[in-house]
Amino acid sequence: MVNALSPWGNHHLIPFGPLREPLTAFSRVDAAVIHHADMVPDQSLSVIESTILEKNRFLPVYRSAMTPSHFFKAPNISSPLTLGVLSEKIVLCVSAIGSPDSLVQRIETMGLSYVDRLDYSDHHQFQPEDIRMIKARLEDLKNKFSSKPTVVVTEKDYDRDSEILLGLDPFDVLVLCYKAQRRAELKARSTLLMALPNEHKLKFNSYKDAKTLMQAIENRFGGNIATKKTQKNLLKRQYENFVASSTEVIEQTYKRLQKLISQMEMYGEVIPQEEINQKFLRSLSQE
User: Which residues are listed as membrane-spanning (predicted)?
Assistant: First the structure.
């Protein structure tokens, strides 16, 4: 997964930079996801995709985004508040996540009167001295604007440090909740790309949604009804005769089976997951 807001940082690995893997790792993965894709221009996304494809020209590259859904006031997790609850408020964003800019940029679109921020390192465990520092900043904001500010944190930070964050009382702590966008869409596009032969993946990777990708595939490979029926029957026979090869590791066998399943789904042949699991296990025993 690549953070679109800061894709490569200073190009150094942890602990000298933000990267958990070198860029060469794209050569051995099955897919790449550009996260926060809705928060940067399309031109920037194209540059990121080009960098990824330089390392693996057949790699499917997807885009994802997190959409704010609601707040809740800690600790009342079961009482959602609308996103408009911060309108005209003074807000202090406190975060210990990998991309604090994503939180601040989201909050800045919600009609606030003023937004301040305190950023900690990713996965930071809040300590009593942190709470004192946060409360001191809140008091400064209160004195500056003659209004009690509100603290905003992410679900990730709240889940990790819910008890200690309650030490910010009497200041309210609002937790911003998200929902993932287009999960079904991404899965559909992934299934279609997986079904394509490697030599065609680079060309079809430019289609960014499942609908246009499917149309392009049909235009290129559609054929007439008789051709489709023949191809479907051929795939069914390949599935029936599927066995593991002595020259491949178990991961390769599984990927090969998944690709065959994806190709069958393109022709309307859907196989229950339980049957697929049994087929995979039987294929290993027949090796």
Answer: none
Average pLDDT in the chain:
84
User: What pTM value is reported for the model?
Assistant: 0.59
Tokens coding 22: 């070198």
Is 45's pLDDT higher than 70? Answer: yes
Instruction: Give the CA distances from residue 159 to residues 9, 36, 83, 123, 153, in Å, rounded to whole numbers and listed in that order.
Output: 27, 21, 20, 11, 10
Give backbone dihedrals phi and psi of 73, rounded to 5 degrees, phi first. Answer: -90, 120
Phi, psi (deg, nearest 5) at residue 20? -90, -20
Q: Which domains does the chain have, with CATH numbers?
A: 2-63 (no CATH), 68-178 (3.40.50), 183-222 (no CATH), 225-284 (no CATH)
Bridge partners (DSSP) of residue 71 are: 81, 176
How many other C-beta atoms are found inside a 10 Å radius of the C-beta of residue 210? 19
Judge whether 166 and 173 are in contact, CB under 8 Å.
yes
Residue type, position 51, single letter: T
Confidence of residue 187 (pLDDT cuts 50, 70, 90): low
